[in-house]
TrEMBL record:
Keywords: Membrane, Transmembrane, Transmembrane helix. One of its GO terms (molecular function) is G protein-coupled receptor activity. Residues 378-430 are annotated as: Disordered. This is Uncharacterized protein. Residues 405-428 have a biased composition (Basic and acidic residues). It is a multi-pass membrane protein. PANTHER family: G PROTEIN-COUPLED RECEPTOR 157-RELATED, TRANSMEMBRANE PROTEIN 116. It comes from the Eukaryota. GO terms for biological process: adenylate cyclase-activating G protein-coupled receptor signaling pathway. Residues 393-402 have a biased composition (Low complexity). GO terms for cellular component: plasma membrane. Residues 380-389 have a biased composition (Acidic residues). It comes from Seminavis robusta. Coiled coil: none annotated.
């Protein structure tokens, strides 16, 4: 019993040591105004770009009646709204909503910081779940053949619309009720206590003390609260990656089927459209991973007490950019054909500038047939017609690779009928023989 209590006290002492060391490193990291200004500017510009791109996607979809009725586009609109909420209230505003005197550049109040924390948390975590909804929607449409009517009839669309809000809203309301919207060193975030790094033991928490007692009690290694921070990513990550894998398998099977079977033009166009939609869904998954991976890595490093300056800079640049990536994927069907056209024009220009040896080889491979060759072929077929009437033995030449095989055959005697008029132009058989004779002469 005494050994267990000793181990517990040692673990608590070790945890306190790592916590104080990490806290000191973070405070040293932010001990100058220049560093704070640099951090704020770094995260502000990507956030502004993301807001503008998300607003463009929202307006573009809403203004098109045939586009705004699609389930996937409606999810993209909701995803873009969440991106605007997070990018504006958290990285763009930065420390501005924080109470005056609590951070460099702070010009707000406790209420303003709580509001910013509520909307930024709602936008960030809801966008994670909406990425999973979008991936599921693409799998249902492409892999299982569900259309808009079937999605609406089975109420799957409303499930994809509302489930993210049903999951995230209680979490945000709980943080607001427990006074958890406070300044966290960079922005106003959810589930934070004030002042920073208070533990209700050495430093009494003025706001958010309940959150510290429930979520941020440290053990010997990591605080258990960080698991709640990345819980949406842990839940949605496998769903999104699994959907991407299913879409990739579908595209691969379609390509193999196109190579193996001869299909009609309409079927080929339908499969091509399905492949394009599936590829669009895969790109949305990559846009999600471009934001979630830096977030998970940054939180994991923070939980392990590894205070690296890059820990703050890299997520500050990459995390607000989901609106930008979503806009790039959304507009890809419009600008990608233009890029392909430009690339094809460049290839045509390059083919016109070939060397003389290449042009000579192409001319010899496609050398035209002379008039003399056509006349020789025509006379040979005329002689064959006369011999067929007489029942004489004729010799015919058949191409076998690059050689000519001579065969003798007894032509049957034609019945006594009026000889049909000779064609004024060589027919298709004469032209084929002429092609062969022309190639053999060369």
């Amino acid at each position: 019993m005494s050994s267990d209590s000793t181990d517990t006290s040692n673990n608590n002492a070790l945890s306190d040591f790592y916590t104080r060391a990490y806290t000191d490193a973070v405070i040293d990291r932010w001990n100058t105004d220049e560093q704070l200004i640099l951090e704020q500017q770094i995260q502000r510009w990507p956030a502004l770009l993301s807001c503008l791109c998300s607003l463009y996607v929202i307006v573009d979809i809403v203004r098109q009646p045939h586009e705004r009725v699609k389930v996937a586009n409606r999810i993209v609109v909701l995803l873009s709204v969440c991106d605007v909420l997070y990018s504006f209230w958290s990285p763009f505003l930065g420390s501005w909503p924080a109470p005056v005197g609590s951070a460099y550049g702070a010009a707000g109040s406790v209420a303003a910081c709580s509001t910013a924390a509520f909307f930024s948390g709602l936008g960030f975590y809801a966008s994670t779940y909406y990425n999973a909804s979008l991936a599921i929607c693409y799998v249902l449409m492409i892999c299982y053949g569900w259309n808009e009517t079937k999605l609406a009839a089975r109420r799957v669309a409303w499930f994809l619309y509302l489930i993210p809000l049903v999951i995230v809203l209680p979490w945000c309301i709980l943080s607001l009720a427990w006074e958890g919207g406070n300044y966290n060193g960079r922005t106003c975030g959810m589930m934070q206590a004030y002042p920073q790094f208070c533990d209700n033991e050495l430093v009494k928490c003025e706001r958010g003390g309940k959150i510290v007692d429930v979520f941020w009690q440290n053990n010997a290694n990591t605080p258990r609260g960080w698991i709640l921070m990345v819980l949406p990513s842990i839940v949605c990550g496998p769903i999104v990656v699994g959907c991407m894998f299913l879409l990739y398998l579908y595209v691969l099977r379609q390509e193999l089927a196109n190579d193996r079977y001869r299909i009609s033009v309409s079927t080929k166009e339908s499969r091509r459209h399905s492949q394009q939609v599936a590829f669009q869904g895969i790109l949305y998954v990559w846009a999600y991973l471009a934001v979630e991976i830096p977030w998970i890595v940054g939180v994991s490093m923070w939980a392990q007490r590894k205070a690296n300056p890059a820990l703050f800079v890299i997520p500050s640049i990459l995390m607000p950019l989901q609106g930008w990536w979503n806009a790039v994927v959304y507009l890809r069907p419009r600008y990608w054909p233009w890029i392909q056209q430009r690339l094809s024009c460049c290839c045509c220009t390059a083919s016109k500038t070939k060397g003389p040896e290449q042009q000579q080889g192409e001319e010899s491979a496609t050398r035209p047939i002379s008039v003399e060759t056509l006349s020789v072929a025509e006379e040979s077929f005329a002689d064959d017609d006369d011999d067929m009437e007489k029942g004489e033995t004729t010799t015919t030449s058949k191409p076998t690779g690059t050689a000519i095989r001579i065969e003798e055959s007894k032509r049957p005697t034609m019945p006594d009928k009026t000889k049909p008029p000779r064609p004024t132009k060589p027919d298709e058989t004469i032209l084929q023989s002429a092609v062969f004779l022309g190639n053999s002469q060369h």
